[in-house]
Specification:
5-stranded parallel β-sheet; 3 domains; 8% strand; Arc Repressor Mutant, subunit A; Tscrpt_reg_LuxR_C; alpha/beta; DNA binding
Length: 300
């Protein structure tokens, strides 16, 4: 009997079913809708001629044991809050990743580079058959350890008598995938040479980096990440973010507070992290307290 042919995405869904995840959890891991997961599950049941998702989970576990393969690498970090605004920036960064093999989202700390990069990586995930990986370089103190951080992110273990950078290059050589490198600024001296080797050895790999400064490599496409737009007053992206985060703590600002919220977002220069921190304090400080606290950095 011929082996059923399943797509790369169906294989990912099947592997996650083997981890006994719900459809909603699978959707979050793969950045697809629950309805799309349901469609893949139905297709798997039909192709594999199995009666229910429990049988799919058993099939996935048995296949993993037989082949000796580990499950899929960790997915993109699941944000705890909704992504707000930045329609134009999101589209521009996605277009840059499609057009260039190495793109750096550049902007000051707290402007929202990581959230934008994650949103774009999620948008593009379906275009990379071998997946999307995320490596946070914040814990990396030594530039020579950049390769080790990437190895951990993509699931490449230590190999005797083999340099970890070489192991990563060999493992990813044939992968059509996207690698997100977050917070590169403090280890740029390690990121730049590593990326040069990685992209030369892995012709179908693309890299989306975030950094407070350009990586200054010949193949880099830098895309500036500006503060959130304050254009449009109470209809702006900055105000939308404040309203969303303030509502999350249980006290959404009413219509009468819109002018004050606009003023707060202006005072914070549209910086996403500062707006989120201010919104989190809305319930306890109120508008007057926030306005007063903006002159006292320690209070805010």
């Amino acid at each position: 009997m011929a082996t059923p042919s399943i797509s790369a995405r169906e294989a990912e869904v099947l592997a996650l079913l083997g981890e006994h995840l719900s459809n909603a959890e699978i959707a979050g891991r793969l950045f697809i809708s629950v309805r799309t997961v349901e469609s893949h599950v139905s297709s798997l049941l039909r192709k594999l001629q199995l009666p229910d998702r429990r049988a799919l989970a058993r099939h996935a576990a048995a296949s993993a044991r037989t082949t000796g393969q580990a499950g899929p690498p960790p997915a993109l970090p699941a944000p705890l809050t909704a992504f707000v605004g930045r329609t134009r920036e999101r589209a521009e960064l996605a277009a840059a990743v499609r057009a260039h093999r190495q793109v750096t989202a550049v902007g000051p700390g707290g402007v929202g580079k990581t959230r934008l990069a994650l949103a774009v990586a999620g948008d593009l995930a379906g275009e990379f058959p071998d997946g999307v990986w995320f490596a946070d370089l914040v814990p990396v103190a030594d530039p020579v350890r950049v390769g080790a951080a990437v190895a951990a992110a993509v699931g490449v273990g230590e190999q005797p008598a083999r340099d970890v950078d070489d192991a990563v290059l060999a493992a990813l050589a044939d992968h059509d995938a996207l690698l997100v490198l977050d917070n590169c600024e403090h280890v740029r001296d390690g990121v730049a040479p590593f990326l040069e080797r990685l992209l030369a050895a892995c012709p179908r790999l693309r890299v989306l980096a975030t950094s407070r400064a350009r990586l200054v490599v010949p193949f880099e496409r830098a895309v500036p990440v500006p503060p959130l737009s304050r254009a449009g007053g109470d209809e702006s992206d900055a105000v939308a973010l404040f309203m969303d985060r303030a509502a999350a703590v249980g006290w959404p600002p009413g219509p009468g507070a819109s002018a004050g919220v606009v003023a707060v977002c202006e005072r914070l220069d549209g910086m996403a992290l500062a707006i989120e921190l201010a919104a989190a304090r809305w319930a306890t400080l109120g508008l007057d307290g926030l306005a007063a606290g903006l002159g006292d950095q320690l209070r805010i």
